[in-house]
Write a structure and sequence with these properties.
This protein is an alpha/beta fold. Helices cover 55% and strands 13% of the residues. Helix 2 packs parallel to helix 3 (62-73) and helix 10 (178-185) packs across helix 11. InterPro entries: CheY-like_superfamily (IPR011006), Sig_transdc_resp-reg_C-effctor (IPR016032), Sig_transdc_resp-reg_receiver (IPR001789), Tscrpt_reg_LuxR_C (IPR000792), WalR-like (IPR039420).
């Protein structure tokens, strides 16, 4: 797998590069600003882009802007963004759940949003890299927790879910499969399927066969305005 890295902190950039290289992947470019990142992606056409959200010159959301542009222009490139801050908006924008998103972005998998602290757990970080590179979805648990807590307070349907169903809902939003959810919660995959079915019914969500669409549907629901009707 060929990877491009965008990270303005030199030590962190080199650390990520070393971890990925040791895992057997090829880092074809590692750069420190948004302009260089965009050029590297266009030149190298990697399998995966890993980028910080805040990058020079303004240290706002240049990395996210590049990531969104890559998802529109090169849907075959998987994208994993890193941030120091919990921002549910970033996850929703990356997944194409915002209103008016191009159909291509809405349908494409291969996307992740992780807090930088996750990199310290190397094995977990590498597992998320593999998941995203394979076309899956990886959303940071802290981001999901914020969204679920907000929805629980603002939405009677989420508030009416059982504690176990909310646990399953959160893991669904992170991009976990039914098997992975079962292993995490120490319940059978059959039990997970039953919980998922009841969650879909309670939230009036469409049943999604595709894993990415399932994550997208859940995050769309969790990010909707209080009082808005589910779609």
């Amino acid at each position: 797998m060929r990877i491009v890295i965008g990270e303005d902190e030199a030590l962190l950039r080199r650390g990520i590069e070393a971890v990925l290289t040791e895992a057997g992947w090829s880092v074809v470019a590692a750069v420190g600003d948004a302009a260089a990142l965009e050029l590297a992606v266009e030149r190298e056409r990697p399998d995966l882009l890993i980028t910080d959200i805040r990058m020079p010159p303004s240290q706002t959301d240049e990395g996210l802007t590049v990531a969104l542009r890559v998802r529109r222009q090169f849907p075959e490139i998987s994208v994993l963004v890193l941030s120091q801050h919990v921002q549910r908006r970033y996850a929703v924008e990356l997944l194409g759940a915002r209103e008016g998103a191009p159909a291509l972005a809405r349908d494409a998998g291969g996307v992740g949003y992780l807090l930088k602290q996750r990199i310290a757990d190397v094995e977990s970080f590498l597992a998320d890299v593999r998941e995203v590179a394979a076309g899956g979805t990886a959303i940071d648990p802290e981001v999901v927790a914020v969204m679920v807590a907000r929805a629980r307070l603002a939405d009677s349907a989420v508030g009416g879910l059982t504690a176990r169903q909310r646990e399953v809902l959160a893991l669904m939003a992170e991009g976990r499969s039914n098997a992975a959810i079962g292993a995490r919660l120490f319940i059978t995959e059959k039990a997970v399927v039953q919980h998922v079915s009841r969650i879909y019914d309670a939230l009036t969500l469409p049943v999604a066969a595709d894993a990415h669409r399932r994550v997208l549907a859940v995050l769309q629901y969790l990010n909707r305005r209080p009082g808005a009707a589910a779609t």
